[in-house]
Amino acid sequence: MARSVIITAALSGAGTFRDNNPAIPHTPKEFADEAHRCFKAGAAMVHVHARMDDGTPTHDIDRIRATYEAIKDKTPELIVNLSSSVPLATPEQRIAQIVAVKPGMASLNTNTMNFSTLNRKTGRIVFDGIFENTFIMLQDFGRAMEENNVKPEVEIYDIGGFDNFDLISKQGFFSRPVNFNFVWGVAGGMKFRPDAFMTLVNSLPPDSNFTTCGVGTEQFPAVMQSCLVGGHMRVGLEDNVRVPNGDLAKGSYEQVEWAVRIAEILNRAPATPEEARKIMGIKC
Description:
Layout: E1 4-5, E2 7-10, H1 28-41, E3 45-48, H2 61-74, E4 79-82, H3 91-101, E5 105-109, E6 113-114, E7 117-118, E8 125-127, E9 130-131, H4 135-147, E10 151-156, H5 159-169, E11 178-184, H6 194-203, E12 208-214, H7 219-228, E13 232-235, H8 252-265, E14 269-270, H9 273-280
Parallel strand pairs: 1-14, 2-3, 2-13, 3-4, 4-5, 5-10, 10-11, 11-12, 12-13
Antiparallel strand pairs: 6-9, 7-8
Helix pairs in contact: 1-2, 1-8, 2-3, 3-4
């Protein structure tokens, strides 16, 4: 088991807003400040969905570049992982932002699926949508990332997505190691189940790494299991706006602090950004 554990902070997401938690960043400066706090708390990487000043998620390349550069200017050590998922963007727009900015890592989604928001207490649908990720998109996005030295983070929302990636990977253009992120608790994806988690771990190809994240109350059980069995952890306000005691998180950095406690309990040390680059094969 890797001694070091990579902690990622997902700062905003496309569907979490200030009425959920007022600490959600909007401006490039706010992203840079929050990313720096996460780095100081123990994060090696931040995952970013850029926003406009009013909080609207955006695929505008200039805005995404400004957000990326603000983070790197303030904390050059950090790895920045950009999202290739933007509401209402075309496939061409989704990959164009990654190719233009060339971050160290970017998300690579593996299957078309329901992607919705439900009231967990009543079961009523708050938002309902389809998250499109065809085989062609998986192939073209993955190839474009690799050709531009952007390491893909392969997002696994269910085991079918894992099998989809396995099929496309036979073309041979994905570099090693492959980095997977198991996503739990999305309405339309898989709920966190420890046995399902181990099924994914046991299915991993040689020379690969895995991180995990969970939505809402599934966040901390999922990341704890990941840390326990040799994987890495993603926390942050994109996934969950609270800390384990139920209070609103003061920021993604406070969840990073909780992740560091988990690592310490399990006798693992938070990886530095440089260690994370070596583990994941990230070039910048």
